[in-house]
């Protein structure tokens, strides 16, 4: 709900003398309009969307990456009003054809499209005739979605294969709105982020968890809590120009491997490293890959404080899109439907011995603005595991025995294929699928 609505709602429910009501309505509206703002480089459109038109033209995955590097995503369009607002903004920005935050999967000629923010299948669409296209080619299952601006093509949406002949387009990126605070350098989604190496008067950049939290408290903040992939990406972007390999997060374990955030918010999102086998009472993030691992709380690390902006407005909590699980997989895995991150793929018959001898193909994916990553926590195979992303080209192969291996696809989709003819006496493989 918007702040103006919240403000008005609280006024309506409190029967107040009319003059006071009048004054309060005035201050509600004035403060809402004055304070809602966008991160640098973004334009506030319609008082509610922070938009940016890329000047570069590229494949869906390159433009999505450009949005992400700014703490943004491809634009979310969930109503006709959104579609119009974005179409007009695009046109005024000299952007006539642009990727949007919708991504489609075709399986067996049935195409389903999803919002990039993991809120589920789209409920609004504006397809041009014959779109979305259905593919019956098993390998050609992922499709980016682009729109044309009002004057160029009437804001209609079309799909473009990510496997064959992908089109080149600009993009419209969207970041969450925030509240103006001139004293804050990293102002995002209603919070101010304060990295330890930029705290005035603090002479050590790294310290233990208890000392770090005490420093954050002295700034009227807490150590950071993270509630979405979007926020995780934003935090990575804060550290993109400095060589920091670990930052301690504001979390503590109350049971082995079960954490609470120190600021009291719910632990509703996790980006744990699948290879992490350590038991510790604290969590750190590697800003380079965004993964979280357990550590001892006495470890000296850089840290990040987080302060809510506009503390007096208790009702206001601006949130980025949440990651929730959408399960498209079937139980067999091999030759099955699409495994959407977060999920797991295992070789056929994994856990049985001897392993059956068969050829299998697995399709893995993430939604629009993220890339798909496969973390192989088990890899004991006798013949090659192929990973393919574009038509007719192996992107990487794994062969033999690895303690671990990681594959990060350039875009949303990847195809794994493997013949287990030489695996019968081996363990097979297990891959954890995550958004990157
Ligand atoms: C198409 O996919 C949707 C979503 O997975 C599913 O609900 C629907 O039954 C499928 N339709 C056909 C014809 O397979
Ligand atoms: C795609 O397939 C669905 C279900 O089989 C069908 O209803 C739809 O008309 C098809 N779309 C196109 C463009 O062929
Ligand atoms: C803290 O980090 C900043 C930025 O990297 C650096 O300029 C400064 O020298 C560091 N201070 C200490 C005490 O390490
Ligand atoms: C933890 O994983 C690392 C490799 O990621 C491995 O070298 C180490 O032996 C593992 N430790 C335990 C206790 O399993
Ligand atoms: C998977 O599909 C391939 C080729 O379509 C087929 O040869 C293989 O037997 C299938 N595997 C299983 C376990 O059904
Ligand atoms: C993979 O490794 C096995 C065993 O070392 C070998 O027989 C096979 O030829 C290798 N395959 C490729 C494609 O390198």
TrEMBL record:
SMART domains membership:
CLECT (SM00034), CUB (SM00042)
Q: Please name the source species.
A: Caenorhabditis nigoni
Q: InterPro entries of this UniProt entry?
A: C-type_lectin-like (IPR001304), C-type_lectin-like/link_sf (IPR016186), CTDL_fold (IPR016187), CUB_dom (IPR000859), Snaclec (IPR050976), Sperma_CUB_dom_sf (IPR035914)
Ranges of residues in domain CUB:
334-436
Q: What is this protein called?
A: C-type lectin domain-containing protein
Q: Which CDD domains match?
A: CLECT, CUB
Checking PANTHER family in the record gives: C-TYPE LECTIN-RELATED, PROTEIN CBG13490
Give the record's keywords alphabetically: Disulfide bond, Signal
Q: Which domain of life is it from?
A: Eukaryota
In this chain the C-type lectin domain maps to 67-152, 188-306
- Signal peptide residues are 1-34
